[in-house]
Amino acid sequence: MIPRPKLSRPLSASYELTAGAAVSGPADLIGAVRTAMPGLDLLPGDDGAIDLRLDPSLGDEAYRLTTGSRGVEIAAGGRAGAFYAAQSLRQLLPDEAFRYGAATSWNVPGVRIEDAPRFPWRGLHLDVARHFFPKREVTRLIDLMALHKLNRLHLHLADDQGWRVESRAYPLLHEMSSHRPRSAVHPYGQPEAFDGIPHGGYYTLDDLAEIAAYARDRAVTVVPEIDVPGHASAILAAYPSLGATGEPHDVLDRWGISPAILSPLPPTVEFLTTIFDELLGALGETPYVHIGGDEVVLDQWAASPEIDAYRESLGLATVNDLQAWFLRRLADALAERGSRAVVWDEAFVSGGLRPDTVVMPWRGQGVARRAAAAGHDVVATSVFPLYFDYAEAASPDEPLAIGETITVADVAAFDPAPDDWAPQERERVIGVQAQLWTERVPDPRTLDYRMWPRACALADIAWGAQDDFAGRLEAHLGRLDALGVEYRPPAGPHPWQRRRPHLPGVIRLDEVMDRIEAMTHDPESTRPSI
Asked: Which InterPro entries match (predicted)?
């Protein structure tokens, strides 16, 4: 089973579960179980084959599952616990149970499971700014996350290469900034080459409302990201007056970082606050909003007399202090709306964050530990082994990736809160999340290949298990086959998965990690790290 339960004991008796079986218990728990097991057509009833009850002594995501001759009994701490119990029950069934119409009954082996997650934040990040993935792909990813008890979908909605959200207040964002005339296709460090194919798309506010509702029904929280003040070419292509210089910009057609940066002046804060209101209005209750703060080139702020005068009026000594002030002002605005700000680790290193800001330390566990020691909640997001845009082997058989190598075993061996950290530091690690940046992920088939089965390993460490993963994964792949997931086979890619061959040896992860870890000790290390 993936993720592995905390406690699982076999029982002697089994039970025959049939399609259309009744589920009894509180209505919200019944709804969770029916959603988790869509192929069984389970029906509400007074005396069910699956009997549910609420146990307030359990955490919201915790559950107990017992199967035997009398049927299936589930005690859950909340709706999420019932949902996860049903996902575990689903994994007790044969692989064919993950196909629609495959059978009308299944034998459920006798078992007692007591389970709860190690971390409350078990996340996947999807960059829809570099390559857009339509709503159907996002909801499919949510389904796969739910199967693996992953519960945070971080959507990277804005970057230099595209803006992906409808704005009724600032319509040029989706009219102009949601598309580009072409995309780069060359390997990193090689001569530029482009595909000549227009690329774009955006989610309407109604789309976002639907995605959020679909996610909530599957115990997943959407975490939207509007990355500022850098990574701003797409915003400034529509509204150049919000930039530090006022000069015109284009949506970038190449990868990498642009020096384009938003102004920190009040009109920008007003603009972003309006965008937040639109996002939160569409998404509904949104506990977290990511505001970026990474890879910012502050030269244009330093060169602007108007911005420099504004900095002095605030009593700030440097432009780094001004960025910290800017991010804190946005975090304050989000707090007023009931959301916590999330940032990448550059914002922590620069200082000045609100104490309740969540830090994602992508540049390694060293800065993660320092953020935790400083009292910030931390979600482990280190490039190694949690950046799934890196290849799984240093081989031209792999599809094109930025560098290598991050394997399934690397992910499975990662500990987000190591034992040698102080207890108060480990307590600040609220979770772990893998990132899929999509510069070299042009389509859903490549997304599947990059994400799975490495995300299976992520689910395992996020829930808490780290033993016998390889053996459990071998059995789990049959479920992914039944669901039609085009994952990377353990032995290497299928012939049809070898398109746009990878160029090995261009970016080595050991060199990357040494360099970016060193940069985290410089409070002015806001410039691009890779």
From this structure: Beta_hexosaminidase_sua/sub, Glyco_hydro_20_cat, HEX_bac_N
The helix (run of H) or strand (run of E) holding residue 92 is helix 79-92
Residue written as token pair 């598309």: 179
Backbone angles phi, psi at 508, to 5 degrees: -100, 130
Spatial distance between the Cα atoms of 38 and 441, rounded to a whole number of angstroms? 29
Q: Which residue among 125, 156, 174, 231 is the active-site one?
A: 231
In total, the chain counts a number of residues equal to 530
Q: What CA–CA distance (Å, rounded) separates 247 from 253?
A: 18
Whether 324 and 353 have beta carbons less than 8 Å apart is answered as: yes
Q: Which one of 73, 159, 345, 460 is the catalytic residue?
A: 159
**In whole angstroms, what is the distance from residue 55 CA to residue 180 CA?**
52
- What confidence tens digit (pLDDT) does each residue in 294-339 have? 999 899 999 999 999 999 999 999 999 999 999 999 999 999 999 9
Question: Position of tokens 């003040």?
Answer: 229
The sign of the torsion formed by the CA atoms of 512, 514, 515, 520 equals positive
**Residue 443 a catalytic site member:** no
298 in Cβ contact with 323 (< 8 Å): yes
Q: What is the distance between the alpha carbons of residues 161 and 444, in angstroms, rounded to a whole number?
A: 18
Residue of 146, 311, 98, 325 whose CA lies nearest to 229: 325
191-232 pLDDT, tens digit per residue, is 999 999 999 999 999 999 999 999 999 999 999 999 999 999
Residue 159 a catalytic site member: yes
| Catalytic status, residue 494 | no
Check: pTM over 0.90? Answer yes or no: yes
